[in-house]
Amino acid sequence: MAGFHIEHFGCRAARADGEAMAGNLRALSELELLAADVVIVNTCSVTAEADRAARAFIRRAHRKNPAAKIVVTGCYAQRAPEELAAMAGVAAVVGNSHKALAPEIILNLTRGAERTRGAERIASAASPVPKCEGPGAPAVVPVESLLTASARQFLVGAGQSPVSTPVWADDRFAYSFIEDVHWGETQPAAGAQTRPNLKIQEGCGNRCTFCVIPFTRGPSKSLPQAVVMRQVESFVAAGGKELVLSGINLGRWGRDFEGSSRETLAGLVRVILEETGLPRLRLSSIEPMDWDDELIALMREFGGTRLARHAHLPLQSGSDAVLRRMHRRYRPWHYAEKVRALVGAAGPDLTLGADVMVGFPGETDDEFEETLDFICALPFGYLHLFPFSARPGTALHAAAKLAPAVMGERMAALRALAAEKSEAHRRRFVGRELEAITLHTPAALARRGSTAALTENFLPVELEGGFAANRLLRVRVTGINTEGAIRASATA
Fold first, then answer.
1. What whole-number distance in Å separates Cα of residue 428 and Cα of residue 424?
2. What is the mean pLDDT of the chain?
3. Which of 6, 7, 253, 322 could serve as 40's disulfide partner, Cβ 3.0–4.6 Å?
4. Hey, how many other C-beta atoms are within 10 angstroms of the C-beta on 478?
5. What is the average per-residue pLDDT within 193-209?
6. Which run of H or of E encompasses 107?
7. Torsions phi, psi of 110, nearest 5?
């Protein structure tokens, strides 16, 4: 059976899209009829570096396997489909607006002119508001007609020939949710993740001045509670132990539903914990101001048992002036109050994480020092650091970058602080027992006679001995290895 490879770039929500897409492709019975390999590139576009990495992978994949049909999806595919369609080897571009249809689009492309199951649904999704210039085209394009005028065309540049690679991307985002997730018969997301992401919210309306996500993901939309519950129950039935709820702006779940009684993320989490047998639920990134009293109370009630004591609150900056220029909806003291409330509810074993941007336009030395001081004062267990990158379509699309030497100095200072905070947090647990879940173990680690695991409070573990993935174990922390992961041995 010819297979497919999917390469993921970007955030947890993007990973969830890719895993769901892969699961649905495996579930299509026609997969065994595929005549050629397919490479799916699930892109990110949050920074210029993310774009560059995706292009580099596409070129490398085409060079190594020129017969493969490369299908590009994700945020970059939504933001600049014509740019990707012009690349050698790309057979189709599927933006976030149509990614729910990607499995059927991919299957149709690989089978030439033959129509496949669901092709009518794809055809009905043909874009009436094309994102790029060119004549409208059928949404399902046979392989042998890719070079004909019937395909939607995109001019690469003045005086150049049009590119006829089919593209599905528009501004409606009507097909942006992949609702049907196939967890596998005995292991959830077999061969991928033991603790997969279930994306329950899509899009964002915050309009931060630096962020391209509202343009690549559309407005906030929530997966209905009935669909979420069905997916959680099927995950439990498939033998899943830990499930991660994710979203582009997860804390906004339910706020787009019509009706007098607004549904909330806290309400959904309570229903999951009270009405299903899910052993452990983890929440991915949630904006600081969306940690309301009800959600924090759930951390007090279930934290450390069935709700992971792990909270990721995007920070971006510890400077009030910078946060205002970013159009972020909180101030540093708001953020600190939420952290104090979370630690009070979950206890000091909570692992706190944050995103921090370096080199936002106009960031002064004093403002950067404010960020350093703010981070020093809070109990962070890890930080995700990234440099500012001007993105097309945003308010700062033409903003000047910080001088490379200054950017390098600030990144180095934050990396050192992040490493110090991370090590201090992890050393607190040496000699203690924690709950953990075993993961798919990399070959190098397995050769050392160890197993990869993750604690309930989000600490990476090198576990002594060989264990199958997807097992919940109690472990005793014995130290920290050279990579920064904690070493542990199983106790039960």
1. 7
2. 81
3. 6
4. 14
5. 86
6. helix 102-110
7. -80, -15
